[in-house]
């Protein structure tokens, strides 16, 4: 089974620091993710709102887990989930929060 990671962002917020950090986080680890623009993708926007009751971006979906925003706490929780799923690369990373 392939783990799908979805990163929900907004094209109306091109300079979203959390969105940019989340993208860089996955890219630095060579972890594939699908970026979904909640502005242009109405179906996914509605699905995410039903699941999280939030319009805040970024929202990261991994398996059945949702992480709203990208900060120290969520990055730690995401790393723990990725380790559990066996897709975390243990090379050192630096997160600037």
Q: What would you give as the CATH superfamily?
A: Glutaredoxin
Order of helical and strand elements: EHEHEEH
First-to-last CA distance: 33 Å
The total tally of domains equals 1
Main β sheet profile: 4 strands, mixed
Beta strands, count: 4
Average of the residue pLDDT scores: 90
Return the structural class.
alpha+beta
**Proportion of helical residues:** 25-40%
In one word, what is the shape?
Answer: globular
Name of the top-level CATH class: Alpha Beta
Strand order of the largest sheet: 2-1-3-4
Q: What is the CATH T-level topology?
A: Glutaredoxin
In terms of DSSP E residues, the strand content is 15-25%
Segments where pLDDT lies below 50 for 5+ residues? none
Write the CATH architecture name: 3-Layer(aba) Sandwich
Structure description:
This protein is 38% helix and 18% strand. By secondary structure, it is α+β, with helices and mostly antiparallel strands. The chain has one domain: Glutaredoxin, CATH 3.40.30. It has a four-stranded mixed β-sheet, sandwiched between helices. It is globular, with a radius of gyration of 13 Å. The relative contact order is 0.21.
């Amino acid at each position: 089974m392939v783990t799908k990671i979805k990163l929900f962002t907004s094209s109306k917020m091109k300079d979203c620091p959390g969105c940019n950090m989340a993208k860089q986080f996955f890219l630095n680890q060579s972890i594939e993710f699908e970026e979904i623009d909640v502005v242009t993708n109405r179906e996914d926007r509605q699905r995410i709102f039903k699941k999280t009751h939030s319009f805040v971006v970024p929202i990261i979906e991994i398996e059945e887990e949702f992480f709203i925003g990208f900060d120290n706490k969520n990055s730690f929780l995401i790393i723990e989930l990725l380790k559990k799923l066996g897709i975390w690369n243990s090379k050192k990373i630096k997160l600037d929060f």
